[in-house]
Amino acid sequence: MANPVSMPLEEYQAKRDFLRTPEPEGRVDQEEGVFVVQEHHASHLHYDFRFELGGVLKSWAVPKGVPEQPNVKRLAVETEDHPLQYGGFEGTIPEGEYGAGTVRIWDKGRRTVLERGPDRYVLELTGTRLTGRYALIRFKGKENKAKNWLIMKLSPSQRDRAKALAPSQGNEKDQKNER
Ligand code: MN
Q: Engineered SS bond to 149: which of 49, 76, 97, 160, CB 3.0-4.6 Å?
């Protein structure tokens, strides 16, 4: 947790002595919450990865699915926050409606947020299919790519150096490496 990107309150907290000031110390949310992956048979099959943060489900559409093995990088396109209740949704969205098609839960479980920054998250997932440590890293680059992220499972040797996974590494070269 030495990476300053992972400590959004670090500067705030460093400036204050909370034994002396009545201001709230605040802390990054590291409590347990849920995650879910929904298999969505829309016009193009994709998998919606969502996890609880700040009372909503942060959401990404992952065309090729969330990898179950380390070192497989998958494109994850950020989508709008969804309500927590959506994590339990399975059913068929009618034709003509946004996201028309069937949705079923592919996996669900608990998540712990280990790192949180504007361009990256590291999560510990405890699901049925997905377990272990996952990183979400936003692509750097053109504005129209800002919603493009990578999702990957970290191998044990990567867990302490996730910041080495710079977004700039996550371009076509890596996508070709997908298995
Ligand atoms: Mn979807």
A: 76
pLDDT digit string, tens, across residues 67-80: 999 989 999 999 99
Per the structure, the count of domains in the chain is 1
* Å from CA of 107 to ligand 1 middle: 14
What pLDDT shows up at residue 177?
Answer: 41
Flag whether 21 is in a domain: no
Distances 161 to 85, 96, 117, 150, 157 between C-alpha atoms, Å: 34, 45, 15, 16, 8
For residue 78, being part of any structural domain is answered with yes
Ligand 1 center from residue 36 Cα (angstroms):
12
Note residues around ion ligand 1 (Cβ under 5 angstroms): 40, 48
